[in-house]
Amino acid sequence: MVTVLALSAALAYGVADFLGGTVTRRATAIRALTWCVPIGLAVVLVSALLSGGSPSTGPMTWGLVAGISGGAGLITFYRALARGPMSVVAPVSALAAAVLPVGVGIAEGERLDASVLVGVLLCLVAIALVSMEADDPARAAAPRADGWRRLLDSGPVMAGVSGICFGVFFVLLKEAGDGSGLWPIVGARLGNLVIVIAALLFLAFRGGDKGPRVSGRTLIGLALLSGSLDAGANVLYFLAVHDGMLSLAAVLTSLYPAITVLLARVAYSERLRTVQRVGMAIAVAGVALVTVG
């Protein structure tokens, strides 16, 4: 069951990212998030009310911290894309997000069967390969600082930080437990909202340009659908990680870039690079081994 739930979460995350990316082509990430995050909060709040359970301080706090970490990871990821080549940033972030939960799971005593372990390792390789996209010189046009500041603000380092934030999100939702129903996910979405509000206040204080607004029924509809699917993916991952092992659920969920890449291929006729095709094949093999195991 954990395999079905985690792969369903990957599907939902992948579609949500594709729709969110479509919105940011005409607006900006922060503008898109101001639509996606509130609707996502509404979706999980209704789901929590309908599924039973009651909010309690402990699980809600775990969820809140998880959401803050996930939101910080998203902001950091976009900053990484502005500082370094996408072909490096995306796979570094995706791998860090997947490897951290695996390490935590193993440290907590999780043991995978041989075939499942091989499948997980193949999925990790697939995540890196599928995430490799062509470089965009415009993304690296931002001014650079010198010395250690330049190193810490570089694309690969920021990508690693974003991946760690995403990995922490996966781990903390496991630690939240499932005794309070879906309320930890409500806490997580509140954490996302805190990060978005903080980013908006920061831009307002710095006088930064938030970019063009999300306008028009179609674009707003895509933003709302993206936020709803992302919230649904949170719920599916939460159910998956509490139905099985953290290491397995996190790795399978982290295959979502494959869905985004495939949708971009269909919608925008974007050609898959050879390395991405190889990654897709490896992902299929990895999922097959995990399923059989």
TrEMBL record:
Signal peptide per UniProt: none
Entry keywords, A to Z: Membrane, Transmembrane, Transmembrane helix
Highest taxon, organism lineage: Bacteria
TM region(s), chain numbering: 32-50, 62-82, 88-107, 114-134, 154-173, 185-207, 219-239, 246-268
Coiled-coil residue windows: none
SUPFAM superfamilies (UniProt xref): Multidrug resistance efflux transporter EmrE
Domain EamA: 4-132, 155-291
InterPro entries with a match to the protein in the record: EamA_dom, EmrE-like
GO cellular component: membrane
Family membership noted in the UniProt record: Belongs to the EamA transporter family.
Record protein name field: EamA domain-containing protein
